[in-house]
Write a structure and sequence with these properties.
This is NYN domain-containing protein. With 314 residues, the chain is of the alpha/beta class. It is built from 13 helices and 11 strands. It has 2 domains: 177 residues, Rossmann fold (3-Layer(aba) Sandwich); 88 residues, no CATH class. The longest helix has 27 residues.
């Protein structure tokens, strides 16, 4: 007899095994069909990210002729609703997750205005710090954190970004890296741009809102005008006028703080600490009834008058 090598039967040789494999494939196909059907019926989601500092500055400059928040009122609720409505028309098959409103505040404590915005439906207020020069700090990092997190977790498919800072480029790149599309919205600038070119290059689409869109939401406060308006209305204050106001503010400052504070300032002449410089500007603008922002020559005269009075007291 010759030895024969036994042949092990293939697991697929059995009709029962074949039926089991076919049944498994059919179950897998059924699950895939259900998943695809669910994905097809699930609406996409978008969120709106608003740099409030940009919105105030750009809208104020366009409508009221100044970026100084004290010179105008912004109907934030109306503007947010307008942004939501515009997004609804651009993304008709998408649902809104929420609007993120990024602003600055001293020690991150909500102002009454920010509290009222936070109470609006579908709005989340996120606060960075506000330094002595009323500049926002930490807002860009908050935008990047939220934008990246929502894109990474597939919570949004589209992000509307309303801002203009070049530092937002990294936030756009991070969101796009997770598959989200980023749409940059801006407010029309007079005689130039108010959004960084690298940011414009990076986004998926762009849109700009004009004066007619913004005008209903900006109201100039009475009794406060920009220097440009003052020039149009009549003679502007002279350097000597502004210098005199600087000396007047210095007298008030010294009377409130005493000569000990003066000895701390003198070694830094001709420079003022940021907090003191900001106090000087705010008080001087109140006395003059107009904004000196963007007029470096008059601000230098203001500081000169401030120093003149202080040095006379030493």
């Amino acid at each position: 007899m010759t030895d024969a090598t036994p042949v092990n039967p293939s697991p697929l040789d059995s009709p029962l095994d074949l039926r089991a494999v076919v049944a498994g494939i059919e179950r897998t196909n059924e699950l895939l069909t259900r998943v695809l059907a669910e994905v097809a019926t699930t609406p996409s989601t978008h969120a709106v990210f608003v740099d409030a500092g940009y919105a105030y500055a750009a809208a104020g400059r366009l409508v009221a002729g100044t970026e100084d928040r004290r010179a105008f009122e912004l109907d934030a609720e109306g503007l947010i609703e307008a942004f939501i409505d515009k997004a609804r028309t651009i993304f008709p098959d998408s649902r809104l997750l929420r609007v993120y409103w990024y602003d600055g505040a001293r020690r991150r404590i909500h102002t009454p205005e920010q509290q009222s915005i936070a109470e609006l439906p579908d709005v989340k207020v996120r606060l960075g710090n506000l330094n002595a020069n009323n500049q926002q700090k930490g807002v860009d990092s908050l935008i990047r954190s939220d934008l990246e997190s929502l894109a990474r977790h597939r919570a949004i498919s589209d992000a509307v970004l309303i801002g203009g800072d070049e530092d937002l480029v990294s936030a756009v790149e991070a969101a796009q890296g997770y598959g989200a599309r980023v749409h940059l919205w801006g407010i029309e600038a007079i005689g130039g741009r108010n959004q960084a070119e690298p940011l414009l290059w990076e986004v998926d689409s762009q849109r700009t809102f004009d004066l007619d869109f913004c005008k209903p939401y900006v109201t100039r406060r009475t009794g406060f005008e920009s220097l440009g308006e003052a020039l149009a209305r009549g003679p502007a204050p002279s350097r000597e006028d502004v210098r005199f106001v600087g000396a007047r503010v210095a007298a008030q400052w010294l009377g409130a703080r005493g000569h000990d504070s003066l000895s701390e300032l003198l070694p830094g002449h001709p420079y003022l600490p940021g907090t003191v410089d900001q106090e000087l500007l705010v008080e001087a603008e109140s006395l003059l009834g107009l904004s000196l922002r963007g007029h470096a020559d008059l601000r230098r005269a203001l500081r000169d008058g401030f120093w003149d009075h202080l040095r006379m007291q030493f």
